[in-house]
Amino acid sequence: MAAAAQPASARWYGSLMRGAPNANYGCESALIAGPLGGVQLAATGQGSCTYRHAGYLYSNRPTFVAPGTGRITAIKVRSGPRPAKLRLTILTGSSRVDTFTGRDLPGTYTCCTARFVGKPFRPRANGMTKKKVDVKVFDVRDKRLRFRIHSSDGVALTAVGPGTVPLQIRNDVGAFTPGIPMAVGYWPYTHKGDPRSADGYSMTGIDLMFQWYFKRR
After folding, report:
1. Strands 48-56 and 167-169
2. Is the dihedral of CA 25, 26, 31, 32 positive or negative?
3. What is the C-alpha end-to-end distance of the chain, expressed in Å?
4. Which of 204, 94, 217, 200 is nearest to 156 (CA)?
5. How far apart are the C-alpha atoms of 79 and 124, rounded to whole Å?
């Protein structure tokens, strides 16, 4: 009965959590497009990074952007054998909006600036870690002429120090198969108040094994 009484928006968002994390590297490396095609593991020279889920190709499942103003009350992370310390990170992006309809103008979305970076925690090796949190997230739309903006928060993970990142690298990494997961990484990690729009590196076939529980308002 308690579950039935929760608002429809109170549920887990993020990765589908299918399979297991298998990345054998941490923030010191990243999968990038190779100069001759395919992908390759490259050194980043960094000891920290921030990853956000970028959805599933041709799917409308919310994996990163909060569906409204509310609270993140819990997170889940599935980790490999040597997990790095992690921090919950809230990133803010924005779009310009039409002054008549209030709808987002295509091609105007920019992401992201870190608004919140939580305390570090060490996830459980070779298993699922569930952690209670209490972080406010916002979705604000204002079509007034002097603002004309839609600002929305997204939920990400920061890794710091040695250890592996909670990523599943699929056999079709770098492909564009319908339903394939996508991830975006930033090196070094996104500090609070730090705008990171142009330096995010996206790659298909990488699933950030991370979920977050959202309750509207």
Report:
1. unpaired
2. negative
3. 21
4. 200
5. 7
